[in-house]
């Protein structure tokens, strides 16, 4: 047992399981890099297509390469009638993440190149997944009582088209920019739970669709991607600003999880949260409506003060805290928040799939035995 405990790391925390050139997270200093580039620079200068190309090819695109990448995405911006028929039969009360899981699995069965394991075919399949996932959830959303039918537009960017299909109106340049940046911020983040899930499944030589479906299941959990929905639910449950302090005090005293706070890697402010807060401020100013933002900032300030008093100085807002505020301001349905996260993170997942299969070794960790004494005598049924 002592020898086992020396190699026992609950949750694999701090354990390096593979190599990667996708993203690097500096938790102590609150920095995030994609392929070596600081997230602040990419958020300021790039859009979804630009950064997606970077993560899939490990280099920034030329003008020609970026134009071709955009054309390839637009070419795949459609759903087969059979897939639409399946969505029509989906229960309207279903969660968009469950719809995504079911339909990405269906995408695999409709892909004529599913069995082709060449890198060229894998890249084409990756582009199909990236392009079609937004269509799946927006088509589903159109069917569940939103009282409109919005058809995709090929003249809009990836971010603008999705926002258009979810809200029914073409976004302003500022709205498009903000949504674009939000997608960029969520594209990849080291070996997080869903990315690890994707790599584990990929290591069995399962196809890229299966790996993405598994990652979607991981992301749906409230301790992972589902947290942004819970943040808004938590804030909406508080009517007045003066109610925030007693609510936070009660949550901390009862040991409840405060959604949108804390991170397994960051020991300071999540850099993505800082960028998202600025975007939330921009939206509030443009709309002359800062109700949700004021409540969120007050909640953050009270929580930080209470945690500091308890000596918990390393628990800060993470990406989920302000992303929900931004998505709500953009007019997205609350249960769509995690699906939007997935539509961005799938770029990272497929990139990690490529990395995993390039120098593959199947994952096979061990479990520390804490069960019944080994060799316990068997007791016959008549003597129990």
Task: Spell out the blueprint of helices and strands.
Layout: H1 2-6, E1 23-26, E2 31-34, E3 37-38, H2 39-45, H3 48-57, H4 63-75, H5 81-88, H6 96-109, H7 119-143, H8 158-167, H9 173-185, H10 193-202, H11 208-219, H12 227-236, H13 244-253, H14 271-287, H15 291-309, H16 319-329, H17 337-358
Antiparallel strand pairs: 1-2, 2-3
The counted number of beta strands is 3
Shape: globular
Largest sheet: 3 strands, antiparallel
- The sequence of SSEs as H and E is HEEEHHHHHHHHHHHHHHHH
* CATH class annotation of the largest domain: Mainly Alpha
Secondary structure category: mainly alpha
Describe the structure.
The protein has helices spanning 2-6, 39-45, 48-57, 63-75, 81-88, 96-109, 119-143, 158-167, 173-185, 193-202, 208-219, 227-236, 244-253, 271-287, 291-309, 319-329, 337-358, and strands at residues 23-26, 31-34, 37-38. With 384 residues, it is mainly alpha-helical. It folds into 2 domains: 19-223 and 335-358, Citrate Synthase, domain 1; 227-328, Orthogonal Bundle (Cytochrome p450-Terp, domain 2), CATH 1.10.230. Strands 1-2-3 form a 3-stranded antiparallel sheet. Strand 1 and strand 2 form a beta hairpin. Helix 9 packs antiparallel against helix 16 (319-329) and helix 12 crosses helix 16 (319-329). The model has no long low-confidence stretch (mean pLDDT 92).
């Amino acid at each position: 047992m002592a020898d086992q405990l020396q190699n026992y790391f609950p949750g694999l925390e701090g354990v390096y399981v593979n190599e990667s050139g996708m993203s690097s997270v500096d938790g102590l200093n609150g920095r995030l890099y994609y392929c070596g580039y600081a997230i602040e620079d990419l958020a300021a200068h790039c859009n979804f297509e630009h950064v997606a190309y970077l993560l899939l090819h490990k280099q920034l695109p030329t003008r020609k390469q970026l134009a071709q990448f955009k054309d390839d995405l637009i070419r795949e911006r459609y759903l087969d009638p059979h897939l639409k028929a399946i969505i029509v039969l989906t229960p309207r009360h279903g969660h968009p993440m469950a719809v995504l899981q079911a339909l990405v699995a269906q995408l695999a069965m409709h892909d004529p190149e599913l069995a082709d394991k060449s890198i060229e075919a894998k890249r084409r399949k990756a582009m199909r997944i990236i392009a079609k996932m937004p269509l799946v959830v927006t088509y589903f959303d159109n069917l569940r009582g939103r009282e409109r039918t919005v058809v995709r537009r090929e003249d809009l960017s990836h971010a603008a088209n999705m926002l258009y299909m979810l809200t029914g109106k073409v976004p302003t340049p500022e709205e498009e920019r903000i949504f674009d940046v939000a997608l960029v911020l969520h594209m990849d983040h080291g070996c997080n739970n869903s990315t690890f899930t994707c790599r584990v499944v990929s290591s069995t030589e399962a196809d890229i669709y299966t790996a993405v479906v598994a990652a979607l299941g991981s992301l749906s959990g409230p301790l992972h991607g589902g947290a942004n929905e819970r943040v808004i639910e938590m804030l909406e449950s508080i009517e007045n600003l003066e109610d925030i302090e007693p609510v936070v005090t009660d949550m901390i005293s009862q040991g409840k999880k405060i959604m949108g706070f804390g991170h397994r890697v960051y020991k300071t402010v999540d850099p993505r949260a800082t960028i998202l807060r600025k975007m939330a401020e921009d939206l509030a100013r443009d709309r002359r409506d800062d109700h949700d933002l004021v409540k969120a900032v007050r909640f953050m300030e009270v929580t930080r003060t209470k945690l500091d008093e308890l000596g918990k100085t390393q628990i800060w807002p993470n990406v989920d805290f302000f992303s929900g505020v931004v998505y709500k301001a953009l007019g997205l349905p609350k249960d769509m928040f995690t699906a939007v996260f997935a539509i961005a993170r799938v770029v990272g997942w497929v990139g990690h799939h490529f990395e995993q299969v390039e120098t593959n070794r199947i994952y096979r960790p061990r479990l520390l035995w804490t069960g019944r004494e080994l060799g316990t005598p068997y007791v016959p049924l008549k003597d129990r």
